[in-house]
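User: Before I run my own analysis I want an independent prediction to cross-check against. Here's the chain; please return only the structure tokens and, at the end, one sentence I can use as a sanity check.
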Amino acid sequence: MTQMTERTPLLSTEQGRSAALVSAFLRGALAAGLGLAALSVLVMAVWISSPAPDSGPGGALNAAAGIWLLAHGADLVRTDTLSGAPAPVGIIPLLLTAVLVWLVHRAAHDVMEPDEGRAAPSAGSAFCLVTGGYLLVAAVVALYAKGGPTAARPFSLLFPLVPVVAGAVAAGVWTGAGRPVGPPSWAPGRLREALARPRLAERAEAVFRSAAAGTAVLLGGGALLVATALVWHAERVQESFLGLAGDWAGRCAVLLLALVLVPNAAMWGAAYGLGPGFALGTASTATPLALTGRPAVPDFPLLAAVPAHGPGTVPNWAAAAVPVAAGVAIAWFTARWAVPACDVPNEAAWSRRGTALTAALAAVGCGVGTAVLTAAAGGPLGTGALAEFGPVWWLTGAAATAWTALLGVPGALLLRAWRLRDSGSAEGAVAAWAAIPAQADAEVPEQPSRGRRWWRRRRRDDEPAGTEPGPATGTGRGTGTAAAAVPASLPPLPPAGPVPGRAPRYEKDAGSEPYDFLPTDPWHARAAGDSVREPLLKAPETPSDRPPEAGPTA
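Assistant: Structure tokens:
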């Protein structure tokens, strides 16, 4: 009985650990199922609302499975073409990809934050189990779509589908663990010592954030270019939208397809502003300089906003503002890391070499991120002329690196020098303001105060003009002509203390000297009457404070 009692905590711990591992696996499968179910409901709604569907519900579900795999980066092969020859589909709907990646990321994050009373699994276990659960559902979906009109290529299920899912899970585990920054435990000792340095971690974070800012500015600038082109060619866009479908169900389907392809269009606009442009088939390329060749453009609202055929004009050349803004963003973020605030001393700021190296690495990171997004934004839409459609990823990535490096590195150095100049002026101003009280204390000796301050007093109308008090000396007397009326033998007032019936004159906690209402009698009359009011101003003495009586003198 005692042995069973002693083993109970160990058994409960093992059961809790097993339950956490099973929960991690199920969360990964549930994330995949949620994305697939939402997409299937949407496709089925479009199929039901269609007045004359081409296939039954099985075809609609097969199309939903194919789109789900396509959103993860898998290449599809469409067999139901007019010519009968299989046609590849490689353009990934990036908006749908972002939603699915967020689902699996959130699942991995929740695994690292279990409910109360249940221990969280290790980071490695959570990564393997969530990834395994998600990929199991992906394998089932690929087998289901294999016999339909849109099947996935086997190699594309390994790359890039598996890296996309694994990357999202790794990011979720990292954020769920509290975003730890440090070398992994399996790294060599020297590498861990090098990566554990605070300055190196700070530089790495600066590079990552600056590169992300540059990539985001490129994406936003490309979206702005696309929006401007859509407004500029609004008539052509409207004709394309209304010509694709005659009923509202078809138009809703076209609108949904255009929405999920908006990030793709934004990357096309970024590639256009960077210079390499994008391909409209195997025989046509659109750049800010010109649109050459014979474009093979399908009828689609987003494609109706491409530039006109021929050489580019000033509005086309204005697209170069997009990479300029990206370079300025990298320079700004790098300079803020190099000189965090204007009150930072020059010794604490980064060196010119460190700032330039950080900006250059951020430019490389921006180029890599742009190349990855560009590779997903474009791809083949068929065979023949449509085998090449969209921007070329390596040309766009190289152009992004060149633009941001040429503008970001010198811009970061200039901003660093500007912020250091502000820092120096701020330090000088702070030092000057800090020296004012010390100079005032040194120039004006501290003496016991007496009576009202002459600068606090309001002069009466009947006061003669020549009796203006002189500079403050701390005694309350002026140095004008009326100062002679003050007796020279007048004893000084005792230090101010608490007087019954009156507020204290000095408040040490507030650090100031408050004053009462201004007097209305002339100042010379007050000075002459000080001897009369002196007994009233004296604080009551206690026996301990009374000085000893002097003895008889010789």
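Sanity check: The mean pLDDT is 78.
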